Amino acid sequence: MTKSSQYKTIFFFLVAMFALHCLSAQDIKEEENEGGDRPNFILIMADDLGYGDISCYGNTMINTPNIDKLASEGIRFTDFHSNGTVCSPTRAALMTGKYQQRTGVSGVITAANHRNVGLAIGELTIADELKKYGYSSGMYGKWHLGYAPEFNPTLQGFDSFKGFVSGNVDYHGHIDQEGYVDWWEGADLKAEEGYTTDLITQYGVNFIKENNPQITGKPFFLYLPHETPHYPYQKRIDKAVRKVGVRGTASIPQDSIANVYKEMVEVMDEGIGQIMQTLKETGLDTNTIVIFCSDNGASKNGNNGRLKGFKAEVYEGGHRVPAIAWYPNKFKEGTITDEPVMTMDFLPTFLDFIGEKPESEVIDGISIKNLLLKGKALPKRDLFWSFKNDNAIRSENWKLVSIQESDTENVALYDLSEDIGETYNMAELRPDLVNVLRQKLGNWQKKVRYGVKEVSN
């Protein structure tokens, strides 16, 4: 063989190897991101569930075997935080992947005063993003991002919606706090009998069966935002405590709330067990990522464990909440992570799992995919909470809390690595750090919060 022939042979060999490598890489990409191999996503959100409200987080009174099983087979977070300390803000952050202040939803969208405002249709939601890549999406439960039909979930990326749009409804009568019937199918009011928690579960079960990717050829995103354990406190056998056209809620004896609360959480846990059983029966349990979390900390009727404060406060009890991630054979079972994660991280994380990035120019959340799959530490970042006149910044293990009362600002500094209960104020011992964190907090407020028209308070 001549030298010329040898060179040609080597050249064509290298070209072939390069082409084979490219095809292999493309095959891998397609295998990860196309067809049935793309994971389904199920996100289950409790309402006002505290850090100490379920048994795998130390509760000895409430039994949550199905949630506990998710934790034992998946990843349990000890440093997970809702973006807001109340309902609507966290949901705005969840949907958009950004601080809720950027969307204008910085507080509760109330039944009394905010019936004509909501999350802007122009915002790109998780459902919007996943739809671009062939995902079916369904939402069943609590929306709380706009009462009027023009803010309906079906106009914000979801293919189907059943549930309520207010902050809470009578669990049996499906009436909001102002006396309006609040039960929807899509953008239409449609009365339906049943206990709210059970209905949400049944909708979820039906969605999984009807949208099985093995039949439809399309992966799915299922969002199940429960009402439990938000008031009104009602058991399955109770009667309605609200009436159409009548504002307010009939009270129940204070000494019975604990028992009702216990049953409400346990019924939700039972429903989660049904969702997981449906995944197993349909053969989808090996290719579905399940996330469970709460939208904010517990009220004073719940349990936030060792944490200080409650819902609507920027102390840990207001926003450090239980969270679990489950993906068999992908997430190492029985893992406990203390990496700080926020609700707004789910949108970029879900997209990262299918090899895509958010379309929105501004995304504050980060992908936690490598944390979930490999246990890789997250990049360092400062985290912020703001509700009304209360503000907080977390920088590594340091947390600064600023409470504005009239013309007085009360500042506290806590070392969460030693004092998760925020019992010892170190502000006087570290004035230098206080100044640094106050400056960072001020910069964040100017950049993110101020200048945006708020749609709630």
Automatic annotation (TrEMBL):
One of the Pfam families matching this protein, by short name: Sulfatase
Top-level lineage group: Bacteria
Signal sequence interval, chain numbering: 1-24
Molecular function, one GO term: arylsulfatase activity
Domain Sulfatase N-terminal: residue ranges: 39-355
Residue spans crossing the bilayer: none
Entry coiled-coil feature ranges: none
Annotated keywords: Hydrolase, Signal
InterPro entries on file: Alkaline_phosphatase_core_sf, Sulfatase, Sulfatase_N
Record family assignment: Belongs to the sulfatase family.
Protein name as catalogued: Sulfatase
Species assigned in the record: Kriegella aquimaris
Native organism taxonomy: Bacteria, Pseudomonadati, Bacteroidota, Flavobacteriia, Flavobacteriales
